[in-house]
Specification:
Helix content is 47%, strand content 8%. It is mainly alpha-helical and 172 residues long. It has a single domain, classed as Rossmann fold, CATH 3.40.50.1820. A three-stranded parallel beta sheet has the order 1-2-3, with helices on both faces. Strand 2, helix 6 and strand 3 form a beta-alpha-beta unit. The radius of gyration is 17 Å and the shape is globular.
């Protein structure tokens, strides 16, 4: 089961309206795009600012519902200890198990090794992983079922837990 998962081509660089950035432009810039992002994140060290993280999460991750305050504080505590943010973003941009170039790296074709039936759950209001990503995963895997979770963002465990559990039970 994949829940609002990164696609088979990794995390795509997107414009604010969630359309992919022209891969020719990314290819021209190549590693400069990735390196600028990593250096920028290291220089400004995004995660030590607790209020910034909360505001960012409120806008993009919890854009429908928020966890209760005690749980939210635990999540923030964990985020404040994370030290691999730049590495995570680097890995997500370079991940590509498709058969196609993703704009930064060629695909390694390993998607064909995934033969298990897969449930792909995707929030229709997800601003972190746009809904078209779920469609691309299903198309690439073949043996997959896509469920679009209505009125759910990137946190379906917060937005629609009952529907999420029901879909999982139906799939199993």
């Amino acid at each position: 089961m994949l829940i609002d998962s990164v696609g088979v081509k990794g995390y795509r660089l997107v414009r604010s309206e969630a359309s992919p950035i022209d891969s020719r432009a990314v290819r021209r810039l190549g590693s400069k795009v990735t390196n600028w992002g990593l250096e920028h994140m290291k220089e400004y060290n995004v995660y030590p600012n607790r209020e910034f993280v909360r505001q960012m999460w409120d806008r993009v991750m919890y854009n429908k519902n928020r966890p209760d305050e005690e749980l939210y504080e635990e999540y923030l505590d964990d985020a404040m200890t994370q030290r691999n943010v730049a590495d995570l973003h680097y890995a997500l941009l370079r991940f590509n198990i498709s058969n196609e170039h993703n704009g930064l790296v060629p695909g390694n074709g390993r998607v064909k090794l995934i033969t298990a039936s897969t449930l792909v759950l995707q929030g229709d209001r997800d601003l972190v992983v746009p809904p078209f990503t779920g469609e691309e995963i299903v198309a690439a895997l073949g043996k997959a079922r896509l469920v679009i979770l209505p009125d759910s963002g990137h946190a379906p465990l917060i937005d629609c837990m009952d529907e999420l559990v029901q879909n999982l039970e139906d799939f199993i």
